[in-house]
Amino acid sequence: MKGEKYLFVVSGPSGTGKDTVVARLLKDHPEIQHTVSATTRAPREGEKNGINYHFMSVADFEDHLAQDQIVEHTQYCGNYYGTLRSEIERRMAQGIPVILVIEVEGAGNIKRLYPGATTVFVLPPDMQELERRLRNRGTESEDTVQRRLKRAQEEIAHSVEYDEHVVNDQVEACAEALYSIIQSRLQHGQDA
Ligand code: ADP
Ligand code: 5GP
Ligand 1, atom 18: nearest CA belongs to which residue? Predict the structure, then answer.
């Protein structure tokens, strides 16, 4: 589909700093946008509907699925997450670079649907630091921390399937590494 090269998929284990790095990138480069996914998980403190996610009930999410308004979705640690068609297709058509911060299964599905998209995996410096960041964020119960750390191992095993890899040691350096990847793909990427 035309405009696939404008799609950038970012994945990485929970707590690795994806949202922090992408927020920094968008602040420095406002011509880049990001998608707002739909989810059935409860909002964390400070999260806003329509900004962090479109928060939905399970029934509402399933309704969107039935109406083909969600291009890919998955269940992650007991909740639905999905990318709304409306969040990506307009931007692809208009040539606006857009970032999807989604987990590995969704990334694979986006790459199958839009082979011209670029997938980037964000790695933590090491597993101890990942656990420290996840705990320091202070948003998850102990049970959820454990589930997310277990899932992290599985996700890192899939990192070889990604087009590009960056390590989030320092936020600013990682955001600039991501920006270099985007610049390079926009200049050289194939567009259907
Ligand atoms: P993710 O989106 O991957 O789940 P977050 O962006 O929420 O991760 O970051 C998890 C925690 O780690 C947050 O408290 C954030 O402030 C912190 N963090 C992110 N990047 C770094 C970094 N490079 N160094 C230290 N702490 C970081
Ligand atoms: P969190 O609950 O920490 O916000 O997100 C949990 C995981 O779901 C993260 O890896 C995040 O990137 C992923 N995620 C968020 N939105 C989507 C989406 O629309 N689709 C898929 N497949 N994963 C998503």
Answer: 17
